[in-house]
Amino acid sequence: MSHVAEEIAGQPACWRRAAAEARPVAEPGESVAVVGCGTSWFMAMAFAALREAAGHGRTDAFAASEFPAGRDYDRVVAITRSGTTTEVLDLLATTGATVLTANPDLTGNTVLLDYADEESVVQTRFATTALAYLRASLGEDLTAAAADAERALTVDLGDLVAADQVTFLGRGWTVGLAHEAALKLREAASAWTEAYPAMEYRHGPISVAEPGRVTWLFGPAPAGLADDVAATGATWVDSDLDPMAHLVVAQRLAVAVARRRGLDPDRPRHLTRSVVLPPCR
Q1: β 235-237/193-197 pair status
Q2: Going by DSSP bridges, is the β-strand pair 110-112/193-197 parallel, antiparallel, or unpaired?
Q3: Is 214:235 a contact under the CB 8 Å cutoff?
């Protein structure tokens, strides 16, 4: 079994531990910026949407390299598995951020999730555990989500492994999950994937839908969208699983597609576990 497959399977236990240990990362009413790179940015998007929808205050998500330095926030929250990514460290040097990380050597105000660290380059377990912690920090009960994650480990992938293309859709906080699912298939399997807010799908992206391709929704479907996709001949995928658990199914699909294509999901092309850039001259 690959490292990434083992790490995918370890998620339910990690979520339960994160939920049990979760503490607020910001006070209600504070304006918060959540930052990260790659997968961590997509988890930041999901948390930002959840926090603001829960009425805890304005919450924005940014790629760490795009943080608006001139904008005032009461608090910055950063997500970084390695704690060594250049863009995140540059930002931490100028902000007193709260950091969710797997790196025990990172100093400052940290939430250490080292039990969710990974051997693989491709993030799965750490990212969802960070989001589980953040969801629980808002008062969510993740008991059902963790149980759904166990169900997700046995969902039959069927013909999805042979799909030509997959478009992932979400609404609200699940838009971040859609982007993350698409990234997993690109990273692990070099597959053609896209991701959009679900209501944007009819505004152009549906034009690539056809037999042999998949439209995959996280969360509740907009009225009529499943019928519109069916009319194209594409396969429609949704689920009654917690959306974060449904992401586990997408992670498993990424590994399965990689294997079908003869690729090693633990060693994705052109990627490293952390992006460490040379100093600017």
Answers
A1: unpaired
A2: unpaired
A3: yes
- What φ, ψ does residue 181 adopt, rounded to 5°? -60, -40
- φ/ψ of 105, rounded to 5, equals -90, -5
In eight-state DSSP terms, residue 278 is P
Contact criterion met (CB below 8 Å) for 206 and 229:
yes
Question: Torsion-angle region of residue 117: left (phi > 0), alpha (psi -120 to 50) or beta?
Answer: beta
- Element containing residue 164 per DSSP (H, E): none
Query: Which distant-in-sequence residues (6+ apart) come within 8 Å of 253 by Cβ?
Result: 157, 160, 161, 166, 185
pTM recorded for the entire structure: 0.95
What letter does residue 239 receive in the DSSP assignment?
Answer: -
Residue 154: exposed, middle, or buried by beta-carbon count in 10 A (0-12, 13-18, 19+)? exposed
Q: How many other C-beta atoms are found inside a 10 Å radius of the C-beta of residue 247?
A: 30
pLDDT band, very low/low/confident/very high, at 84 (cuts 50, 70, 90): confident
164-205: per-residue pLDDT in tens? Answer: 999 999 999 999 999 999 999 999 999 999 999 999 999 999
Residue with tokens 């992206």: 205
Rounded to whole angstroms, the Cα distance separating 146 from 228 reads: 32
- Assign residue 15 a region (left: φ > 0; alpha: ψ between -120 and 50; beta: otherwise): alpha
Q: Which of 114, 124, 102, 132 is nearest to 7 (CA)?
A: 124
How far is the C-alpha of 73 from the C-alpha of 31, rounded, in Å?
5
DSSP-assigned letters across all residues of 101-156: ES-TT--SSEEE-GGG--SSSS-SHHHHHHHHHHHHHTT---HHHHHHHHHHTT--
